[in-house]
Sequence to fold (633 residues):
Amino acid sequence: MSVRVRPITTIEGTLPFSFSEAGLAECRRLMARYPEGRSKSALLPILHIAQSENEGWLSVNAMDAVAQVMGLLHIEVYEVASFYSMYNLHPIGRHHLEVCRTTPCMVRGSDDIIEHIEKKLGIHVGETTKDGMFTLKGVECLGSCGTAPMLQCGAKYHENLTTEKVDALIDQLRNEPRNNYTDQ
Amino acid sequence: MGRKLLLEHDNKPGIQGLEGYRANGGYRSVEKALKTMSPEAVLEEVKKSGLRGRGGAGFPTGLKWSFLAKTFPRYLVVNADESEPGTFKDRYLMERIPHILIEGMITSSFAMGANVSYIYIRGEYFYIYRILERAIAEARAAGWLGRNIIGSGFDHDIHVQVGAGAYICGEETALLESLEGKRGNPRIKPPFPAVKGLYDCPTVVNNVETIAAVVPIVNDGGEEYAKIGIGKSTGTKLISAGGNIKKPGVYEIELGITCEEFLNSDEWCGGVKGRELKAVVPGGSSVPIIPAELYFKTANFEPRLMTYESLSDGGFVSGSMLGSGGFYAYNDAQCIVRSTWNHTRFYHHESCGQCSPCREGTGWMEKVLHRLEHGQGRMDDIDLLWDIQRRIEGNTICPLGDAAAWPVASAIRHFRDEFEYHATHPTKVKDPKHFEKEPFKRQPKFATI
Fold:
């Protein structure tokens, strides 16, 4: 269900945002795909682009930039951004570990995986490590029930997890740049 | 070995690309339909095939198409927002054979008279969005999309829209709202999308598998397709199997095989892993859960079959539904109260918040189930849960309310003694894995032979 949009008053929240050249071109391409007068349809994919270009989350400035590019009211963007669970309205760590915890994953041991990550990183679900490296999130069904337990990091699915695999993944991610949903 | 229609060429090299797909008979249905058939003839074949919607509701596809209002433009929207827990068949199909979806969309759009169609895919499947975009670009370059396709005078183009994580957008009107760039709040029906859908134009919303099934129907004829299956459950169905089974994965079955064969045969699930079977959710989390004995046999002691009718035999008292084909099995280490709590948390999280019974009821049920599962429940919580689910069902705009109510109702109906155990043994159930060492012994309500 929806969450409330509040301006984040920390430094990250006040940083200005503007689209990159490539991002802007992609926005224009997306908006042109729809019938005349229906370019608002591109809002969801454009929010994804904005999120990827803003360290993985949507600040009020980023949403305002989307509204400006698309010619929408600010509220039209806020109400959509706050509805969908893939848009982060708060800053997140460099790597967003989204572990599926819905029933088909649960019966195959997702609770153990979440507990293991919590212990290893010293955080709870919904928190970010102090060094800003990892955010752990429990998410609902990601459509990977046959290869459960699983987690998503950026666009990538990591499936058939064991505690050893999780350890290896976390070590590997420490040396990697941010993974975004929109990665090629 | 059952016949396969969608996954027949699943393992052929290069099937993901246009060349490999073409080499295995791809795009034949487009050639046949656009060059030798009229749109009405294609629709007639689909009607004859008896194809039913593969997304969960099982509504006859040909009938759905024939409801389209007689105005233009019209749209075909493919629902690839597969988010029903337990379901991952569309993901498999789009990842392995993206062109079968595109081929089905061209043929289906020709039958409907739609010149633009959209695929709405869930945001989490971003990498499949890339696969589809590549496949569409390939098809466009080869002349299967665009203006005057293979000289037939029919124009068509496909766009892929990516969502952003909302189960509710799998409901067709919520999907259309989301496709228009709004919050995914389901619309009040009527008007149905066939009259007033995307951008207020006549629209058909179909599941990925449904549209892919149009390909073999047009290739071999509707009557040939209808020869597979039993009664009104014709053709093949993709089943995504998960949970405590030996061989999880996506399987294409001929509708009408027995449930026992599906679960225990090595060709499919390969049996339950390690322990005994406790319960089965045969069609995605929204369908009623049924205990093992009712999965194998109906209440009349007839073998249960993998068909729309047989799985719902006995109504909600002793049956379930085929749903989306998201099959998962529980072994006897699993706790029904825990899994029901988990389901309810899912529905609470995914409720759009429009209708009070669903918005408030799912949250309330989640809290009550949470306290039962964590050893703080009371005996009258069970009746309270029954009461809440009864007041949600049928009182909401979209079926998410019903989908949230059914798993709770069926769990209480079949496993009431386990709920009572949770209320009376608070210290035992505090251990999250309370049934692992000592499985719960329940008394089956329906005697088995």
Observations:
- The CA atoms of residues 95 and 128 of chain B lie 6 Å apart.
- Chain B has a mean pLDDT of 94.
- DSSP finds 19 helices and eleven strands in chain B.
- The longest strand of chain B covers residues 236-243.
